[in-house]
Specification:
This protein starts with a strand and ends in a 6-residue tail after the last strand. It has five helices and two strands, in the order βαααααβ. It is globular. Helix 2 crosses helix 3. By secondary structure, the protein is mostly helical. The chain has a two-stranded antiparallel ribbon with strand order 1-2. The protein has one domain: lambda repressor-like DNA-binding domains (434 Repressor (Amino-terminal Domain)).
């Protein structure tokens, strides 16, 4: 799933490890989310959005555009 995690993390000068610690997941999980190899659970997606003061829709793009 496309997402803005990498950009949001970089804007705060956070490493993957620092974000992983804040989210209580592994660095590998953050890497997998950023490279679109893993879609986070709803609780993790919500936690990431809250952490970055954003909505889930702003952080994650499900690709379901009705255009």
């Amino acid at each position: 799933m496309k997402n803005a995690i990498r950009e949001l993390r970089a804007a705060r000068s956070l490493s993957q490890a620092e974000l992983a610690k804040a989210m209580r997941v592994s660095r590998q999980t953050i890497n997998a989310i950023e490279t679109e190899r893993y879609t986070p659970s709803l609780p993790l997606a919500l936690a990431l959005a809250r952490y970055f003061d954003s909505t889930v829709e702003e952080v994650f793009d499900g690709g379901n555009d009705d255009a």
